[in-house]
Amino acid sequence: MFLIIMFAFSGTAEARLEWGDVPPDSLGVDKDKREVKISDYRGKVVVLTFWATWCGYCLKELPVLENVQRKLGPDRVAVVAINTDTDQDKYRAMRRKMKDFQLTMTVDRGNPDVSAAYGVSGLPHMLMIDKQGKVAFTHIGYSDEMLPRIVDEINELLEE
Q: DSSP string spanning 96-108?
């Protein structure tokens, strides 16, 4: 089963990023309130995922991406999970449950609005950024059937 959970935006999302686009630099703030930037990971494959605590498919995807981070190592791949929740208490509670995760978690606090800058209109929303800092692949939604393709795409980017 494949599902995309759509956001209810009051406005419209900006144009979705496509292959070859240079993504916006800001990825939100981490638990220490430091801004995380995509430029911090230049030379690595970067896997970004936008998620929320209420998104069941997001919560299935995050452990898979955590496994990618652990298996491939932070010197080769950086996984950044960008939370879009408006209820920060729910985010903090979920973060405590994921305290042993090695992937980087950030919060889209809406200033600037990271989700809008990346054209996110549904969750989960994944982008893979190549070692040169350009968008290589995007996926909206999640299913277990997508995993072989995601693994192939990450391996392709690692080989470049």
A: HHTTT--SEEEE-
pTM: 0.89
- Residues 113-130: tens digit of each pLDDT: 899 999 998 999 999 999
By three-state DSSP, how is residue 8 classified? Answer: coil
Distance separating alpha carbons of residues 104 and 85, to the nearest angstrom: 16
Question: Which token pair is 73?
Answer: 């190592």
Radius of gyration (C-alpha) of the chain in whole angstroms? 14
The span from the CA of 5 to the CA of 77, in Å, is 27
Query: What is the phi-psi region of residue 156: left when phi exceeds 0, alpha when psi lies from -120 to 50, beta otherwise?
Result: alpha
Q: Which domains does the chain have, with CATH numbers?
A: 17-159 (3.40.30.10)
